[in-house]
Amino acid sequence: MLGASLKRLWHKLGSPRWFFSLTTRWVTFFGWSAAVLLLWGAIWGLAYAPADYQQGNSFRIMYVHVPAAMLAQSLYIGMGVAGFIGLVWRMKLTDVAISACLPLGMVITALALFSGSVWGRPTWVSWWEWDGRTVSTLVLFFLYVGIYALREAIAEAKLRARASALIAMVGTVNIPIIKYSVEWWNTLHQPASFGLTQKPAMPSEMWLPLLVMVLGFYCFAGFIVLLRMRSEILQREMNARWVGDWITGRGAP
Amino acid sequence: MNPKRKQRLYLTLFLLLVAGGVTALLIQISGENMNMFYPPADVVAGEAPVGETLRAGGMVQEGSVVRSTQDLGVTFVLTDHQCADFVVQYTGILPDLFREGQGILVEGQLNAAGVFNATEVLAKHDENYMPPELMDLQGMEPPATPKAAMPGYPSAQRKADRAMDSTYDS
Hints:
The complex is a heterodimer of chains A (253) and B (170).
Chain A: H1 2-13, H2 16-22, H3 24-48, H4 62-89, H5 92-123, H6 132-153, H7 157-170, H8 174-184, H9 204-236, H10 241-247
Helix pairs in contact in A: 3-9, 4-5, 4-7, 4-9, 5-6, 5-9, 6-7, 6-8
Chain B: H1 3-30, H2 40-44, E1 53-60, E2 66-67, E3 73-79, E4 85-91, E5 103-110, E6 116-124, H3 132-137, H4 155-165
Parallel strand pairs in B: 4-6
Antiparallel strand pairs in B: 1-3, 1-5, 2-3, 3-4, 5-6
């Protein structure tokens, strides 16, 4: 029973039209959640959370740096999974997903690197140090840039989809390297203080705002990615009947 | 699943496996080179090259910091709190987070006498954050539980220690 309905869902996922009509409300939901959570988390983290006993106020950069770094990796994993499905099942939607995650992931990775640099200056007394964590994150940024450049360079849609799916998928080997770099090697970067599988290494008045910021970043990503996917679907399907019907108000998608 | 798709699935999985395997091997081969600095044990054991620019890391030994009265010169001992330590000489401005018990990275050269002449001092902070009031409540010294930040300290050990002395929720 469950297997059959899962299979049906899987086949539906291949339909851009189905996805378009499904996500109409989600965009609004993610957009408002992101606005509320980011505002709430930023005010809480930057103004009300206590300062750190060693670093003082500079530790507050964490409230941008940690969610940015987490999201940068999650978006890449999303692209890798989409790439894998795209290569095997040749779904149209996966290439739409890759094209939507790509620019956001690139910007968020840049934000993670930049905020880390700004944080490194007062604590490490250095804008940049070549350790395992920073280098693997820089590689992540180059992967994003590389796939972006590749997509710009290939005009033929099928080839573009296949090439970017392949690189997105293979590039996911970098994700465990980023995650475990601080445990495998001696790095200047500290180990993780916050994650799904561990107790946060700080009291709740410090990590609760961080949790709100992380959720806010993910909702923001949901908002941007869905928005971009929907406009990409409209562009690709512009000659389809349902798009015409929807635009002229004659029917729902 | 139709046979063509199945073939693509196997091919893709194989590709992923190869990419993962190659990366794992590369990491295995590069091994030591991926480390950013030498821990005190390696410096003392003579594994760090003498006269070459390199980085070393350790904890600043409590009570070892001696500041010059004439200039910005300072000497201190970097230790792993276990078996190894070495002397560092440095002239310049120290990072704000520099204090006894703090994890520190030094860049410079090791001389034949085993003294490290640092040209740069970087502060390494740990993954624990805490408001100062909470610190006072527990009557702790500010440079508390430096173990967690100890460079080269095995992470499993680090986690076990953290669980044991659970700094703030006792």
